[in-house]
Design goal:
Number of strands: 22
Number of domains: 3
Number of helices: 15
Strand content: 15-25%
Largest sheet: 8 strands, parallel
Helix content: 25-40%
Distance between the termini: 28 Å
Structural class: alpha/beta
CATH topology of the largest domain: TIM Barrel
CATH class of the largest domain: Alpha Beta
Length: 555
């Protein structure tokens, strides 16, 4: 049976076991020297991803956008923003990816559009109660003259989730809902016109050859149309989108969203081997697993795993709970440690206290222990890539890239920083352009010195070219892990804990004949067997595994 035949066989689909690499387009590679990453730059660097050994590439939004939230404010879902290129550039990039054996996943943003979307502009120029306004969520305000927001809902980025408009006659008017920035008005998912529009958008990219979608804030689209105030039980004082799924919430993870999931799944099922992954910040894991029932999403990000600290007992629980919860609905778990919204795990594991999701690290905050963070991050990545299921890698983590924690505030672009008046510095630190060549302008990010966010000087030591072919480098570690993962079919493997080797500060499991052992405490003795890969330099079979190290052993 060929690989192509196998990946289409029921229960062996590609998305069940793939390693998917996230590209943040503006920060991956700049093809024209304007300081902004683009599709041309991405296309030119795709061979490096194929060499790394990943199976697919997920691209954060490249759609037409005023870029108030780095492309997550979409003004045209069927076109490419000129910052990144053209539809022809996308087609060429996709063709190149497919020729290298890489699948392409598009980021879809269905909770909100840009305020510059033609439909929202039409809404602003239409009367209250009009069909145009009904595509979004407009409400009259409270108070004597409607001067107060319709309720107390807060934006994830800080401040009220409502903004008042000025009507066409110049008088103060209705309020519109935006769970994120005011430039991102929420769609009304009770409107059939909106529902049909997104069916069409899905088909547009599927017909173009996209292999699937990552769905942004997938748990947010349905709202309680009574618009009740939030109380302390279901509000998040830090403004984040993480929700306790055991509590009924007026705008997160409402039951009606599963109707949308099933509708979209039916669209994807019209095509061969396409998949979609939900960004659903929902807990507990048993609730999250509902998203990957056979007629809904193929995957959902396992944020419970991402948020678990480098702690043996907590890791053991989240892995066991994940495999059980997702297995109960016949779905694979996914594993992820970093993305464009969280502090890079290389830095996160070097902190004594991790800030809330989306808060970031600024120059006045606790600075990570860079050496400790990298050592733990390498060990954690080796542990993760040994697990069965799908895995996600965020661009630069294969280099051990840390967060830019000393970014001057004058360069910040994340709306979180501005909407919280600097109380939360936001996510810019994990979005800085990545280094390719240590001695080139912009560290090889592009042909000029320009970068849309400044790179710290220490990025030179993490550049790809200084790690290429260097035994023990983080890049070569990732290459070896991915090669062995594929050769031993660990993504579709058979998992069980090696209980005699599991302690309060160490974990060990077996997957398809490969033992993965991670140590978070005092040195431990390794079992006999062939060492396949290790994060510890010069480790010998039967030797001692030091703290914050991981080894793969053929038993």
């Amino acid at each position: 049976m060929t690989n192509s035949q196998q990946e289409t066989q029921k229960g062996h689909e590609w998305w069940r076991s793939s390693v998917i690499y996230q590209v943040y387009p503006r920060s991956f590679a700049d093809g024209n020297g304007d300081g902004m990453g683009d599709l041309e730059g991405i296309k030119n660097r795709l061979p490096a991803l194929a060499e790394l050994g990943v199976d697919a590439v997920w691209f954060s939004p490249f759609f037409k956008s005023p870029q108030h939230d780095a492309g997550y404010d979409v003004s045209d879902y069927r076109d490419i923003d000129p910052l990144f290129g053209t539809l022809s550039d996308f087609d060429e990039m996709l063709t190149e990816a497919h020729s290298l054996g890489l699948k392409v996943i598009v980021d879809l943003v269905p909770n909100h559009s840009s305020s510059e979307h033609k439909w929202f502009q039409e809404a602003l120029n239409s009367a209250p109660g009009s069909d145009a306004r009904n595509r979004y969520i407009f409400k009259d305000g409270k108070g004597e003259t409607g001067e107060l927001p319709p309720n107390n809902w807060q934006s994830v980025f800080g401040g009220s989730a409502w903004t008042r408009i000025e009507e066409s006659d110049g008088t103060p008017g209705q309020w519109y809902l935006h769970l994120f920035d005011s430039s991102q008005p929420d769609w009304n998912w009770e409107n059939p016109e909106v529902i049909e529009e997104f069916d069409s958008v899905l088909r547009f990219w599927l017909d173009r050859g996209a292999d699937g979608f990552r769905i942004d804030v997938a748990h947010s689209m349905k709202k309680d149309l009574d618009f009740p105030d939030l109380d302390e039980t279901n509000s998040n004082p830090e403004g984040g989108a993480i929700v306790d799924g055991t509590i009924e919430h007026p705008h997160w993870d409402r039951e009606g969203v599963h109707e949308i999931n099933r509708r979209w799944r039916s669209v994807l099922d019209e095509y061969d081997q396409r998949a979609m992954c939900a960004e659903a910040w929902v807990m507990p894991l048993s609730k999250m697993a509902k998203w990957v029932r056979p007629d809904e999403y193929h995957q959902t990000f396992n944020f419970g795993y991402l948020e678990t600290p480098w702690n043996a007992q907590q890791l053991k629980k989240v892995v066991s709970d994940s495999l059980e919860a997702f297995g109960n609905v016949g779905a694979p778990s996914t594993w992820v440690l970093s993305n464009h919204d969280v502090i890079r795990h290389t830095s996160r594991f070097g902190l004594s206290h991790v800030p809330p999701q989306g808060a970031g690290i600024g120059p006045d905050d606790e600075q990570p222990d860079e050496e400790l963070g990298l050592r733990r991050a390498r060990a954690a990545s080796a542990f993760m890539l040994g697990l069965p299921g799908g895995a996600y890698i965020y661009q630069g983590e294969e280099l051990g890239l840390p967060e830019h924690t000393t970014l001057e505030h004058k360069f910040r672009q994340d709306p979180t920083y501005f909407r919280t008046n600097g109380d939360r510095v936001g996510r810019d630190g994990c979005r800085v352009p990545i280094p390719w060549e240590h001695d080139k302008p912009s560290f090889g990010f592009g042909p000029s010195e320009k970068t849309w966010l400044p790179q710290p000087e220490n990025f030179a030591s993490y550049a790809r070219d200084v790690q290429e072919g260097v035994e023990g480098s983080t890049l070569e570690l990732y290459k070896k892990l991915l090669r062995l993962r594929k050769a031993n079919k660990l993504g579709a493997g058979d998992f069980h804990w090696l209980e005699p080797l599991c302690t309060e500060s160490a974990l060990a499991f077996e997957n398809s004949g490969v033992a993965v052992i991670s140590n978070m405490g005092d040195p431990i003795s390794l079992p006999s067997g062939e060492i396949l890969v290790t994060t510890q330099k010069d480790l010998q079979a039967g030797g001692m595994l030091e703290t914050d190290q991981t080894a793969w052993i053929r038993l």
